[in-house]
Design goal:
alpha/beta, globular, 14 strands, binds 3-methyl-2-ureido-butyric acid, Nitrilase/N-carbamoyl-D-aminoacid amidohydrolase, single chain, 6-stranded mixed β-sheet, 311 residues
Length: 311
């Protein structure tokens, strides 16, 4: 069985507050058709694909908040995507806001196989931002208000002859994210992101630095775990709030092999050889031979910094 898979990173341009789920799914279907014409095996869409990045808006009415969440997946709006992808035999992944039957709220992504079956679910662990209105910021980032931290850890799944994992946006900046999946032999991590073009707490940190940190994090995670990483953005201006775009596909040596050129809906395609993950996993990052867990206790024992005592 071939271990080469053709991946389509389906970057999305902005989704305005007023845009309906049905309109977004039509755009996703357009990208799926492009992927079909390129003979892709897998299509990856961004974080919170179905809606605008609503955590930038401060809301106090839970009914208003809940309008941004999906109670079922697939549902009426997304079923055409599931059906068309299954018809084409294309696996896919996308992010959405999930409200569980017992009322929990998560920033979630799913992995769907060639037959349209949901084989994997991930809930964002590293939620950035704050939970109350913060007037010191240029704009709000209220993920900690609207979501709970993910409760599923970082599992991996077998699909398309390989081992796949997921994470979401801010998770990509944390080495622990990749390493937990690396320790399960992950060969491809798919992730979506909504990264504002400017740091809301530091106006001089603009798009150039934001792209640098995006690439730095994703390339390091790929290299240090010898895995493919497919990082897919929403870009452009959502109701006046610009986001960086810059979707990339990174190989297990940490090199960018494909990159989006626009800030709009754009499919970038690359043939990814899952066997290319083997060399790094068997040599410099052969975890079994080289890791020294006796020295890593602090990684799981503490969150904040414990500085040495003053002398
Ligand atoms: N959606 C995100 O998680 N955004 C963060 C921003 C707030 C830094 C990110 O890591 O891009």
């Amino acid at each position: 069985m071939s271990r080469m898979i053709r991946v389509g990173a389906a970057q999305m341009g902005p989704v305005q507050k007023a845009e309906s789920r049905q309109a977004v799914v039509r755009r996703m279907l357009d990208l799926l058709e492009q992927a079909k014409s390129h003979k892709c095996d897998l299509v990856v869409y961004p974080e919170l694909t179905l809606t605008t990045f609503f955590p930038r808006w401060f809301m106090t009415d839970q009914a208003e908040v809940d309008q941004w969440f999906e109670r079922d997946m697939p549902n009426e709006a997304t079923r055409p995507l599931f059906e068309k992808a299954a018809e084409h035999g294309i696996a896919f992944s996308f992010g959405y806001a999930e409200r569980t039957p017992d009322g929990h709220h998560f920033n979630t992504s799913i992995l769907v196989d060639r037959g349209g079956r949901v084989v994997g679910k991930y809930r964002k662990v590293h939620l950035p931002g704050h939970d109350e209105f913060d007037e010191s910021r240029a704009f709000q980032h209220l993920e900690k208000r609207y979501f709970e931290a993910g409760d599923l850890g970082f599992p991996v799944w077998r699909m398309l002859g390989g081992i796949f994992g997921m994470c979401i946006c801010n998770d990509r900046r944390w080495p622990e994210t990749y390493r937990v999946m690396g320790l399960q032999g992950v060969e491809m991590i798919v992730l979506g992101y909504n990264t504002p073009s400017v740091n809301s707490q530091r106006s001089e940190e603009g798009p150039e630095k934001r792209h640098f940190h995006n690439r730095l994090s994703v390339q390091a995670g790929a290299y240090q775990n010898s895995t493919w990483v497919v990082a897919v953005a929403k870009g452009g201006s959502e109701d006046g709030h610009p986001m960086i775009a810059g979707s990339i596909i990174v190989n297990p040596e940490g090199e960018i092999v494909a990159e989006a050129a626009t800030e709009g809906d754009e499919l970038i395609v690359h043939d990814c050889d899952l066997d290319a993950t083997k060399f790094g996993k068997e040599t410099i990052f052969d975890f079994k031979r080289h890791r020294r867990v006796e020295h890593y206790g602090r990684i799981t024992d503490q969150t904040g910094v414990t500085s040495p005592p003053d002398v």
